[in-house]
DNA sequence: GTAATTTCGTACCGTTTCGTACATTTTTAT
DNA sequence: ATAAAAATGTACGAAACGGTACGAAATTAC
C-alpha cells in the first residue's frame, strides 16, 4: 500500500530537495542573518509562503540547511577519513574532500555552512546546539579513526591528536572565507596530517 | 600649540572610545548582519546620526570594531606569545590570554569578533580583507616566535608548526561560540602547545 | 550682544523585512 | 457535473531597516 491510491487534492510540484540545495548555497555564501526570505525565494524559485510550508520559518530553514550540509559531509568526506591505511593519508584525503565541498572552484569559496557561518549566529540557541553537535561529531570521528591507527596510544594522546585534527578543519573554513586558495589549504592539510601522525609516533622523522 | 586655543563651536561630549567598546561587544555577540543601528544606538547611548558622524556607516563601524579588537589582542595577548622562555609555555600562555579575551566569564562567551563573526560576512570585501589581514598577522607572529624557539628547524617545518598554532586559535573561536567552557579550551590550548613543540623536536617524549 | 561655528538629537523618508490571509488552480471522490 | 481536498502564488500588513535633512543647543570670535 505504498502509493496504491493517489492523494486527494492538487499534486505537489515543488522539489524540496533541490530547493534545499539552493538554500544551503545561499546561507553558506552570506550567513544566516544577511539572507532574506526574498533572497531565498528568488534562489529557490519558490514563493515565500511555499518556503514556509516546506521548511517553516527562516531559523528552521537554516537549521535544516545545516543538517543537509552535514549529510553531504557524511557522504562525501567522512568515508575518506575512515578508509583503511595510514592515518596520515586518511587525514590528508579527508581534508582534501572537505575542501572540495568548501570550494566551488579553486579560487572562490562559498565556504562551510557550519563552521564559517554558524558561529556568528550562535546567539540563537538552535544554531548553537547544531554547531555544538557538528564540533562534537567531528571530534568523535577523529578520535575513532586515530584510535584504530594508534591503538597503543593513551586516551590522552588520542584526544589531543583528535582535537588538533578537528581544529585544523575548523580553521580551514575561516581561511577559505578569508580568501585562501583551495590548493594552498590542501597543502596545509597534508602537512598537518603528517604532523598529527608524527606527534603520535607513527612516522620516523619528527616532521 | 597642542590645545592652546580651544575649538570654535559647541564642545564635543561624546566618548568615542567607550562607544567603540560597546560596538565591539555587540558585534562580537551577534555578528555583523544581525546587529541593527538601533541596537548600536541603544548600546552606546549615542543617537544614530552621532554614530554616523563618529564612525561612518554600519560597514565601516564593523571594520573599525575589528581594528579595535585587534588592538586589544596585540596589547593583552601577543606579549605572552613573544615572551622569552620555552615555546610550549609561550604558546600555552598566549592561548590562555586569548581565551580571557574571548570569554566574559568561565562559561558564557561573546567570542572572537574576527574569527567567529567575520567569516560569515566575508562576502563584504572590506570584511574579507580585514579577516585576511588577521589570519596573516597571526601566521606571521607564530612563525616569528617559532623561528626563535627552533632556529635549526627548516622553514618548511616552521611554517607547518605556525599554521597549526594559528589554526588552533581560530578553532577556539568557533568552539567558544559552540558553548565550550573556557577551562576546557585552556586545557586544549596547553596540550596543543605541547604537541606543537613536540613536533618540532623541542621535548623528549613524543607527546 | 550678535554672528559664525560646531555638536547633537528629533523627526522623517523610502525600502526592506518577516509573516499571513485569501483567492486560484489542480486534482480525487461521488 | 459538482463537491471536497490539497497545493500554490498574489497581495497585503505591520514593523524594522539604513540613512539623512534639519533645527536646537552650546560654544568662540568679534
List keywords for this structure.
homodimer, DNA-binding, 207 residues, mainly alpha, 10 helices, elongated
Describe the secondary-structure layout.
The structure is a homodimer of 207-residue chains.
Chain A: H1 16-30, H2 37-44, H3 48-55, H4 58-76, H5 78-82, H6 87-102, H7 113-117, H8 125-149, H9 155-177, H10 182-199
Helix pairs in contact in A: 1-2, 1-4, 4-8, 6-9, 6-10, 8-9, 9-10
The structure holds a DNA duplex (30 and 30 nucleotides).
Secondary structural class of chain A: mainly alpha
Q: What is the N-to-C order of secondary-structure elements of chain A (H for helix, E for strand)?
A: HHHHHHHHHH
Beta-strand content of chain A: under 5%
- The level of helicity of chain A is 55-70%
Distance between the termini of chain A: 61 Å
**Mean pLDDT score of chain A:** 93
* Main beta sheet strand tally, sense and closure of chain A: none
Unreliably modeled segments of chain A = none
Which chains make the largest contact? Answer: A-B, 52 and 52 residues
Shape of chain A: elongated
In terms of quaternary structure, what is this?
homodimer
Walk me through this protein's architecture.
The structure is a homodimer of 207-residue chains. With 207 residues, the first copy, chain A, is an all-alpha fold. Helices cover 69% and strands 0% of the residues of chain A. Chain A has helices at residues 16-30, 37-44, 48-55, 58-76, 78-82, 87-102, 113-117, 125-149, 155-177, 182-199. Chain A is elongated and about 65 Å long. The termini of chain A are far apart. Chains A and B meet through helix 7, helix 8, helix 9 and helix 10 of A and helix 7, helix 8, helix 9 and helix 10 of B. The first copy, chain A, binds a DNA duplex (30 and 30 nucleotides) through helix 3.
